[in-house]
């Protein structure tokens, strides 16, 4: 159905759709071919990080549904607790390997600075999420960490807003706000990579280091 | 599991054995990823796509 120019200008859905078509066509979003230089195991680190994040979220959802009694006292609960813990270890290990790879190939080149910076922010929020996770274990380790960390938080001047002795605040941050933040930023990170494609190796540009 | 880890102390560097193993493993994995051939890596295009 034809629409007038004024209708087109005022229709935010039309402008959004056209913007998505322009900046993120489907062959960029779900490509079936990659440049030759993507044929390296270094590019797998980011994918493994995402896979680990999926396991972190799945196991975390199960843990939050069943509760601390279950994850401490039952065999299946302890299994999911371990699944959550070890997938977090893999998440951090492969995120750092991905960071090393992108650092040495200068992954921020050619308009990819925002992609790099979002990755840095994801790293920072992930550390905060892991910290609140240690505080949410409901065991003596969590109490020990909270009692010792409170002095650092107070020394930094944020103890009034970020009270590590407040289990409800730490647990709420850990299972709700911080994971939502990480998920949104990871989706943005992936979409930005898909939009611009993988950065070319420095050698493929004739040694240019722009 | 309940006993403290062994720590290494070189100058200002203080690190536990388990952390040293993890970091060493990560560096080894990174090096392996750089030198190990990727399957079907010859079949890619000229880089103009994507």
Description:
The complex is a heterodimer of chains A (210) and B (50). With 210 residues, chain A is mostly helical. Helices cover 71% and strands 0% of the residues of chain A. The termini of chain A are far apart. In chain A, 19% of the residues are buried. Chain B is of the alpha+beta class and 50 residues long. In chain B, 38% of the residues lie in helices and 16% in strands. In chain B, a hairpin with a 2-residue loop joins strand 1 and strand 2. At the A-B interface, helix 6 of A face helix 1 of B.
Concise structural overview:
The complex is a heterodimer of chains A (210) and B (50). Chain A is mainly alpha-helical and 210 residues long.
What's the topology here?
The complex is a heterodimer of chains A (210) and B (50).
Chain A: H1 5-10, H2 12-23, H3 26-29, H4 44-66, H5 68-73, H6 75-104, H7 113-135, H8 140-155, H9 167-196
Helix pairs in contact in A: 4-6, 6-7, 7-9
Chain B: E1 7-10, E2 13-16, H1 17-35
Antiparallel strand pairs in B: 1-2
Distance between the termini of chain B: 49 Å
> How many helical stretches of chain A?
9
Low-confidence stretches of chain B: 43-50
Question: What oligomeric assembly is this protein in?
Answer: heterodimer
If you compute it from the alpha carbons, what radius of gyration of chain A comes out, rounded to the nearest whole angstrom?
22 Å
Query: How many structural domains are formed by the residues of chain B?
Result: 1
**Strand proportion of chain A:** under 5%
Total domain count of chain A: 2
Name the strands of the widest sheet of chain B in spatial order: 1-2
Pattern of helices and strands of chain B:
EEH
* Overall shape of chain B: elongated
């Amino acid at each position: 159905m034809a629409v007038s120019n004024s209708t087109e200008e005022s229709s935010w859905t039309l402008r959004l759709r056209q913007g998505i078509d322009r900046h993120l066509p489907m062959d960029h979003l779900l490509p079936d071919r990659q440049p030759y230089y993507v044929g390296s195991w270094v590019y797998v680190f980011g994918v493994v990080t995402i896979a680990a994040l999926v396991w972190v979220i799945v196991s975390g959802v199960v843990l939050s549904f069943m509760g601390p009694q279950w994850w401490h006292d039952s065999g299946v609960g302890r299994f999911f607790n371990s699944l959550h813990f070890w997938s977090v270890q893999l998440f951090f290990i492969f995120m750092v390997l991905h960071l090393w790879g992108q650092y040495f190939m200068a992954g921020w080149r050619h308009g990819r600075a925002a992609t790099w910076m979002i990755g840095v922010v994801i790293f920072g929020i992930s550390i905060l999420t892991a910290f609140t996770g240690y505080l949410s274990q409901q065991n003596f380790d969590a109490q020990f960490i909270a009692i010792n960390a409170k002095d650092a938080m107070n020394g930094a001047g944020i103890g009034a807003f970020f009270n590590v002795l407040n289990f409800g605040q730490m647990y709420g941050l850990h299972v709700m706000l911080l994971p939502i933040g990480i998920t949104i930023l990871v989706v943005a990170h992936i979409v930005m990579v898909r939009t611009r494609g993988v950065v070319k190796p420095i050698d493929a540009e004739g040694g240019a280091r722009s | 599991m309940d006993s403290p880890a062994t720590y290494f102390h070189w100058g200002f560097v203080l690190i536990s054995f388990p952390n040293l193993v993890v970091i060493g493993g990560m560096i080894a994995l990174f090096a392996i990823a750089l030198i190990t051939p990727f399957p079907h890596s010859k079949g890619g295009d000229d880089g103009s796509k994507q």
